[in-house]
Here is the input.
Amino acid sequence: MNFLFDIRVLCLLIGLIATFQIFPIFLALGMGEDPTPLVKSMAVSAIFAGLGMVFTRNARTEMSPRDGFLVTSLGWFFAAFFGGLPYVFHGGLDWPSAFFETASGFTTTGSSAMTDIEIWPQSILLWRSTTHWLGGMGMVLMAIAILPFLGVGGTQLMKAEVPGPTKDRMTPRLISTARALWGVYTLITAVGVVGFVLTGMTLLDAVNHSFAAIATGGFSTKNLSMAYFSPAAQWWAVVVMALGGMNFLIHYRVIVHGDWKALTYEEFIGYLIIILTFTTFCVAFLLRSCSWDIEETVRHALFQVISIMTTTGFASTDWEQWPAFLQLLMGLLMVIGGMSGSTGGGIKVVRVMVLLKTIPSVTTRLLQPYQITVSKMDQQPLSREMLENAVATFVLAMGYVLFGGMLLNAMDMDLLSAMGASLTAWANVGPGFNTVGAMDNFAHVPDFGKIVLGSMMIVGRLEIFTILVLFSSRFWRT
Here is the structure.
């Protein structure tokens, strides 16, 4: 392993964090707010990154797969630490809460330790939303786009960074792929801002909510989340969240190449079917239990289904007041998550489809043991690797959530809140159940619990195998 160069790449990531804090600083100056917390944070990050770059200037520009896994894993923890400095310097959050808030931001989880969001300076809230936007496409993916500056390609980082079981390249060169992804991501973000402005938001609110929606994050500038804004803004949020939950390979092919056949991918069709099916169930139950009219019922049902499935976590209403059956559906959507190659969390739609497609094959073999059955997706046979990935990811994830819930329960959190917090942290959703529900926050969670949950968010964002491989003795053998 090339530890010296690993440190160099980590310093680059810290430098990127410092660079993006310039925009909240300009906002603070323009609005007459105190920029000192952001300036101090930027200075500390820049100094640390600068010294690291100087110290590693003679490092060999080589990366092995093990270097990629190590840099990617540590990079997210470093980002959560240095990105949380503005909250600490402001004085509004202590270190565990700042780590939790920033891990929630970069992993696009959206859980918050802030008790009253609206009293915070707008510049800090912009930085908070910026962590969503940077984490949505991935800080490491951004580094890949500029790695020629370091004289190295980013293949090993890409393998460890991109979530989901599929890692199709959109262009022949990896660097071009990363830049194309960021280009499409930025374009959709800009369209989101325009749409939110047209639906009645201020420009600043529009930027914050577009950053959060396309990144499927969930940080809002209002205590009531999207319930504060107009129905038109909520409808537009549905569109942006749905786009964020889609595989960006589809966006690229449709926007850049006009390849509408990308919309026939089975995973995308499955994504739409799940959304429509769950929304139909919600509408049917809400019409019987709520006094809303048809438009309001459909809007809240569709909004919450897409918000939870894409793991955005915005709320248009307090869905914890819904019938228990619908809350159970929300929990199931948390597990499913968005599409592979999206900014969403969960186990991903493609893995759910792989698991479902194996059921007929298993049933057939029970009845006809000697018959050869082949499961397919998009007319291609499912490989043993994809099946093993889907099964192992699901089993490990559920075990991980159960362990996290038990650990939180041991810290005197009630069982429902503990399991909800563990599930929402791993799936990068945001709201959980009971005391950490849609209209609640995580301020009351013990300090160690916040560190545990922040770490669970990072593991969920990277997918568990990226972290698990670090605990293998074979990983550290030279």
Q: What stands out?
A: The CA atoms of residues 266 and 378 lie 6 Å apart. Strands lie at 376-377, 380-381. The first strand starts at residue 376 and ends at 377.
